[in-house]
């Protein structure tokens, strides 16, 4: 059969697509064991967040924005992840992250325990703990680490090293007495006592307050939350005399290739949003790069989680500017890992735990400011009542009204502190239940195909590292 001439073949869009075809054909699956695995989790990073952040960063670079490409979008293998919990259509981070690190789905609100447990009931948890890929890797002699811009005891990072019937049991003061009497242990204590293999070699994040007693003030003047009187930071230092504890950027910068073990807690609670980060704490890209430097000294390899935890918090606050800025910072961390690793021996997975109710509205012109009011042909788009609206809004959240909707101005909505309008009034915006993206490269990355259950992510990691018998 003869080919047909395409008169559009000299069009730039046509030629770019043909180049992409050639790139795809040249890409060959790497079907062998990996030495290392890095799991990047953008907390709350919905597909809409990726799209809007792409435009946001492209526009910051002087482009119209839509044509820009994030680093994560260059990874060759892509799939969709179904995020529901076993008891919830719209999930939370504890159940979703537990699925990714353990291989089984579970309920909302519980940390690396199967779904036979009732949240908050310690006595139902015993015997139902699920072993995580981080525990398995440590037992095999690999180095293990976890990095987060949230409290390091928060739901997503906690799933790698802890088992808890309630995600809120970050320190002893948040636990009911009955749970403590039944032998359950708070999440911060589990981090310090993690004893699989050689323990956790790298821990970077926020959350000093979870490790300090109420009688101790940290270097930034914040007191601890623990009521048991224990200073878990000191206990960690005593347990690991070869390790280095740091609490600010100056100490972080002094960590080097000779560092054997590092514990960095850079805020009393969560680390700052990227838009607000000063010189006193490292970026997520810097933490990722340093973690790889320390972990990669192990000839048996490593496994690392990197969580951009504050994308989620900005969405809960219906503050799209900070959500997008943190997504871009997360993407820079992915680039740092791509540059520091070899795809022949390191599996990189980028995904989200769940989505949010953020949406992109209207029929805006190409290049319209993504955080601005919607415009078509240079004129503001308006609703049936003659009011302007933004391209970005939320299904629910703080900036909803019981009555007539505000008619916003461009100056208002372009402020980094603006809270986008929402339909349903809530003090804190909720998650949403749609699928999220998976991007991957490296050994066994080609196994990400189609729409998969979220717990499948563990099974690709397992296939790559040969963790289970």
Q: Would you kindly provide a brief summary of this structure?
A:
The chain is α/β, with parallel strands linked by helices and 469 residues long.
Question: What's the SSE blueprint?
Answer:
Elements: H1 12-26, E1 36-42, H2 47-60, E2 77-82, H3 93-102, H4 133-139, E3 143-151, H5 155-158, H6 177-181, H7 187-193, E4 202-206, H8 232-239, E5 244-246, H9 249-254, E6 262-265, H10 284-295, E7 302-308, H11 310-316, H12 320-340, E8 346-351, E9 355-356, E10 358-360, E11 375-376, E12 379-380, E13 392-397, H13 410-413, E14 422-425, E15 431-432, E16 436-441, E17 451-453, H14 456-465
What does this structure look like?
There is one protein chain. The chain is an alpha/beta fold and 469 residues long. It is 28% helix and 16% strand. A ten-stranded mixed β-sheet has the order 5-6-4-3-7-1-8-16-2-17, sandwiched between helices. A hairpin with a 2-residue loop joins strand 11 and strand 12. The relative contact order is 0.19.
Write out key terms for the chains shown:
globular; Alkaline Phosphatase, subunit A; 469 residues; cell membrane; 28% helix; glycoprotein; three-stranded mixed beta sheet
Q: Per CATH, which architecture?
A: 3-Layer(aba) Sandwich
Could you say which overall geometry the principal axes of the C-alpha atoms support? Answer: globular
Helix share bin: 25-40%
What is the top-level CATH class?
A: Alpha Beta
Helix/strand-derived category reads: alpha/beta
Family: Belongs to the alkaline phosphatase family.
Binding site for Mg(2+): 43, 154, 156, 307
Subcellular location: Cell membrane
InterPro entries: Alkaline_phosphatase, Alkaline_phosphatase_core_sf
